[in-house]
Design goal:
Length: 269
């Protein structure tokens, strides 16, 4: 049973392997690439497993994504994000490696473009940069503030809190572009048409987490107030960039506005 990569993608024939298919992006990729081998961690652990077929392309969505936990578990985070990526690269085929806005320190006043130098603040960000450096043959797709209809994410958390509380406290001094995984998965097809390299692929528009929470409550019809707080008031273990809006100077696919992504996500929840 062959899973051919569509010809327009231009990467030659072969099966498409999706890593981390149990995650929010992995689930979206499995919908956009329905003939792919979408493997959850129990079927393909990138730190320990081998696979018994040769893919033609890997969409590598598996990662240690627990940003705060990584601060206390740097070795484990590095094992998944760096060594795990090295193992995926060792399959010897082109890889799409999904990376993050958290590779930047947030000190820039303008949106970050691909030529900006990564300066991660957190263990998670450092291990994602380490993973980027493993990729020789393929595409590095940096995106930001992902949300979808599966797994743990900000939208699902806010919907839960908003249904049972009158007010939630949300950080208002970090700015980014919340990106719907369905839009990022769809855009991956367009990335595959571009020359290999690093691309910033995030939703159009930007907001703070507090503004995002307000939009979630508004779109979902929940009567919940947002109390705006600072990052230091929240006191999370991992430092995060104050500004991590991503834009492309390399002709990366343009995604819909984050609010459109939010509406699309809510129809799936
Ligand atoms: N979430 C964001 O805001 C964000 C922003 C920018 C970029 N990204 C990047 O986008 C990609 C996808 O993120 P996501 O939000 O979809 O993350 P996610 O929902 O946490 O999914 C990650 C998946 O990777 C799996 N995984 C962890 N360790 C693994 C291992 N050793 N072998 C195989 N699978 C393993 C996880 O399985 P378990 O659940 O069993 O651990 C999970 O299913 C990641 O590379 C991430 O760094 C994420």
């Amino acid at each position: 049973m062959e899973h051919e990569i569509a010809d327009p993608v231009g990467t030659g024939p072969g099966r498409v392997l999706i890593t981390g298919a149990g995650g929010q992006l992995g689930a979206a990729l499995a919908e956009v690439f329905p003939r792919a081998d979408a493997l959850t961690r129990d079927l393909y652990d990138i730190t320990t497993s081998t696979i018994d077929f040769s893919p033609g392309l890997v969409l590598h969505a598996a990662a240690w994504t627990a940003v705060d936990d990584a601060e206390g578990h740097p070795v484990q985070a590095e094992l998944v994000n760096v060594q795990g990526t090295r193992n995926v690269v060792a399959l010897g085929v082109p890889v799409v490696y999904y990376s993050t806005d958290y590779v930047f320190d947030g000190s820039k006043a303008e949106p970050y473009v691909e030529s900006d130098e990564p300066r991660p603040l957190s263990v998670y960000g450092r291990t994602k940069v380490g993973g980027e450096r493993e990729v020789r043959d393929g595409w590095i797709v940096r995106s930001s503030w992902l949300f979808g209809w599966t797994s743990k994410n900000f939208v699902r958390t806010m919907l839960e809190l908003g249904a049972r509380q009158d007010e939630v406290a949300v950080v208002d001094d970090q700015r980014g572009s919340p990106t719907f995984v369905g839009h990022l998965a769809e855009a991956t097809k367009d990335v595959l048409e571009l020359p290999q390299g690093t691309y910033h692929v995030a939703a159009a528009g930007d907001c703070t987490w507090a503004e995002f929470a307000e939009a979630i409550f508004e779109e979902a019809g929940l009567d919940c107030r947002v109390r705006r707080i600072t990052t230091s008031e929240l006191g999370r273990p991992a430092p995060r960039p104050a500004n991590s809006v991503l834009r492309s100077e390399r002709g990366a696919p343009i995604l819909p506005h984050w609010r459109e992504g939010l509406r699309a996500c809510l129809t799936r929840l």
